[in-house]
Amino acid sequence: VMIASYTVSDGIGVRLSGSPVAYVGWMFIFFSIPIVTVTLFLRRGKVLPFLRANGKV
User: Fold this and answer.
1) Most exposed residue of 3, 13, 47, 49, measured as fewest CB within 10 angstroms of its CB?
2) Cβ-count burial 17-29 (b if 16+ within 10 Å, e if not)
3) Which structural domain, as residue segments, surrounds residue 42?
């Protein structure tokens, strides 16, 4: 039921948006906000040192 629900929801969203690429882009942006927020909350104090050691900040 859940897979069918989000499949129908995505189909409607793509048709209403007029641009499938723009719809997917906005969905990536909107879905990343809660993931980043929860990660920063749960791993506070560890994220920036990790990024400094392993990434470009």
Assistant:
1) 3
2) eeeeeebeeeeee
3) 2-54
